[in-house]
């Protein structure tokens, strides 16, 4: 059994063909942002507190938009899970639910939102929307998500267009012909075996803040904007009705050389100023990364690739092992920092830059 999240990547590389592995692992351009998301966590230094009664264990539970989680960790929305393991999104959702974590389901899932709901039982789930050009389809998807018990809608705003991902140019990835995209109403789904770039062609290309405002007031589910790096955009998201923002650069898959998410987080949190919940993804691989994100103002983190690797290697058990490792490391890091609860992870834990 791998002992940490990094160790799942080479196992997944063995389990998958080159195109599928490259699709998951790759980033845009020179992959500088992909590497820097993790490296930036490594540059931050912790200043732990002692004698705070945490040696016997801590309470890492929290809430996200009012829903209780066992730990401040969520599964990021990632597409095409049926191509990584036959059990696809149902396996990931079941793993997350059993551990008390939130699963975010991608628009581009190979399992329907209803089947994922059944697989996760009462588990907390959010639905991620890539808005489609045909507005009626967006309303239809959100109505289905609401009926199936999803508690929030994430609108991803940093794609399209699709990033320049060179690994996919070397080893083109296409969705296997036997897999569909059942969250998307049938009339719009790309036929055959679409490549990721072809799938983006049905998306709304002229998205602007007025769309966010219209959806936030029309849909019952709270709306979270994913893909924010600038404090100005975070403030705009709130002005237009968002209840949360996810500080994300899409795991370095879109615009290369962007700021690392953990470096962007403090200014976004300052702009949001407790008016909404702020989440972060990108490069979270260790419990210490989770604690650093909490200390700098995140409500919870999302993880993408490690969950995909666990799923690819061993289905539900693999996804579960990855998530359980991160939960356990997070509790250990909180205890060693002297934090009895996640609320006690504050900015004083981060050493000032020298
Ligand atoms: C294989 C893969 C597919 C993804 N598909 C989606 C998607 O459908 N929707 C979305 O909003 N983000 C998608 N993302 C981005 C993730 O939600 C998340 O932002 C990113 O993976 C976080 O970085 P990490 O992989 O370093 O944890 C995808 C990421 C990966 C690795």
Could you give the topology of this structure?
Blueprint: H1 8-15, H2 18-25, H3 32-43, E1 62-64, E2 67-69, E3 73-75, H4 88-98, E4 102-105, H5 113-120, E5 125-129, H6 135-147, E6 153-156, H7 166-170, H8 196-200, H9 209-218, E7 223-228, H10 231-239, E8 244-247, H11 261-272, E9 277-281, H12 287-295, E10 300-303, H13 305-337
Parallel strand pairs: 3-4, 3-10, 4-5, 5-6, 6-7, 7-8, 8-9, 9-10
Antiparallel strand pairs: 1-2
Helix pairs in contact: 1-13, 4-5, 4-13, 10-11, 12-13
Describe the structure.
It is a single chain. The protein is of the alpha/beta class and 354 residues long. It has a single domain (5-126, 150-200, 249-272, 284-339), classed as Aldolase class I (TIM Barrel, Alpha-Beta Barrel), CATH 3.20.20. Helix content is 40%, strand content 12%. The protein is built from 13 helices and 10 strands. The protein has helices at residues 8-15, 18-25, 32-43, 88-98, 113-120, 135-147, 166-170, 196-200, 209-218, 231-239, 261-272, 287-295, 305-337, and strands spanning 62-64, 67-69, 73-75, 102-105, 125-129, 153-156, 223-228, 244-247, 277-281, 300-303. The strands form 2 sheets. It has an 8-stranded parallel beta barrel with strand order 3-4-5-6-7-8-9-10, surrounded by 8 helices. Helix 4 packs parallel to helix 5. The radius of gyration is 19 Å and the shape is globular. The model has no long low-confidence stretch (mean pLDDT 97). The protein binds flavin mononucleotide.
């Amino acid at each position: 059994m791998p002992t940490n999240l990094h160790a799942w990547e080479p196992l997944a590389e063995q389990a998958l063909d080159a195109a599928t592995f490259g699709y998951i692992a790759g980033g845009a351009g020179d992959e500088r942002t992909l590497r820097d998301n993790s490296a930036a966590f490594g540059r931050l230094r912790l200043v732990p507190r002692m004698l705070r009664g945490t040696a016997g264990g801590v309470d890492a539970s929290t809430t996200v938009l009012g829903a209780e989680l066992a730990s401040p960790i969520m599964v990021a929305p990632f597409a095409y899970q049926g191509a990584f393991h036959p059990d696809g999104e149902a396996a990931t959702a079941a793993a997350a639910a059993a551990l008390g974590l939130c699963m975010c389901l991608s628009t581009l899932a190979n399992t329907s939102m209803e089947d994922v709901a059944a697989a996760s039982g009462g588990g907390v789930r959010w639905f991620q929307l890539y808005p489609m050009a045909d507005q009626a389809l967006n309303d239809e998807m959100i109505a289905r998500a609401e009926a199936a018990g999803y508690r929030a809608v994430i609108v991803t705003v940093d794609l399209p267009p699709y990033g320049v991902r060179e690994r996919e140019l070397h080893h083109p990835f296409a969705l296997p012909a036997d897999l569909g995209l059942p969250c998307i109403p049938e009339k719009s789904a790309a036929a055959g075996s679409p490549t990721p770039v072809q799938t983006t062609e049905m998306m709304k290309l002229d998205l602007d803040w007025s769309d966010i405002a219209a959806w936030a007031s029309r849909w019952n589910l709270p709306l979270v904007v994913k893909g924010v790096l600038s404090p100005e955009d975070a403030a705009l998201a709130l002005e237009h009705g968002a209840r949360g923002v996810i500080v994300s650069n899409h795991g370095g898959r879109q615009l290369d050389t962007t700021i690392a998410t953990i470096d962007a987080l403090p200014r976004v949190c300052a702009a949001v100023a407790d008016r909404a919940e702020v989440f972060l993804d990108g490069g979270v691989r260790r419990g210490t990364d989770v604690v650093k994100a909490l200390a700098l103002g995140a409500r919870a983190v999302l993880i993408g690739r490690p969950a995909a690797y666990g799923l690819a290697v061993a289905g539900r058990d693999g996804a579960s092992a990855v998530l359980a490792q991160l939960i356990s490391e997070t509790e250990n890091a909180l205890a060693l920092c002297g934090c009895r609860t996640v609320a006690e992870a504050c900015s004083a834990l981060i050493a000032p830059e020298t």
